[in-house]
Amino acid sequence: MDAFSSFFGSQSSSRNRWSYDSLKSFSHISPVVQAHLKQVYLSLCCALIASAAGAYLHLLWNIGGLLTTFACMGCMAWLLSTPPHQEASAVFEGASIGPLIDLAIEIDPSILVSAFGGTALAFGCFSAAALLARRREYLYLGGLLSSGLSILLWLHFASAIFGGSAAIFKFELYFGLLVFVGFTIVDTQDIIEKAHHGDLDYVNHALLLFTDFAAVFVRILTIVVS
């Protein structure tokens, strides 16, 4: 009986040790890429703070809407061609979703906290999965997710012309959430792969993850509000 307990005790401790070691091991990511990822996530945090400032500006002066949406798209296009800071784009993005945030605050301010917490948890978990996985393991999902994004765009276009329904809206909402959560994994691994090949543009890489985070947040907040 002692031998039996000893055997399974050693197997259990070995399994726990393997799990802990695997969770803290980033040996498959070079030190240069690890340093780059730190810059990316630091820039992402700055972008989220700037986006929160933009949402707050909307609450003060009601500036969010179609104009700030176009301004955000323009800043993103500018960022892809030049290397400035990404805070301007994040401010306009925050102002653009300001009306939705304002609605959530009017209903129940705790909704906003729950939606942001859920988004941060989902984003953190799927980013960690991408960081701990083998290189290029999930990149094949990019084609499937791009097809899903194309389906969402055509559905939105058709709804704008022929009129939508509650069922189509819910499908767009939940399917879009699934697509952008998947993009969190693919984009994270894509950033790692680009960094391994010498692309260390942390501003544009942070903007890519910020776009994923904002898309997930908007959908989770809409689900909670509705």
From TrEMBL:
Against InterPro entries, the record matches this protein to: Bax_inhibitor_1-related (IPR006214)
Q: Which domain of life is it from?
A: Eukaryota
User: Would the keyword RNA-binding turn up in this protein's UniProt record?
Assistant: no
Q: Report how it sits in the membrane.
A: Multi-pass membrane protein
CC annotations in GO: membrane
Q: What is the similarity comment for this entry?
A: Belongs to the BI1 family.
Protein name per Swiss-Prot or TrEMBL: Bax inhibitor 1
> Origin organism of this chain?
Morella rubra
Recite the lineage of the species.
Eukaryota, Viridiplantae, Streptophyta, Embryophyta, Tracheophyta
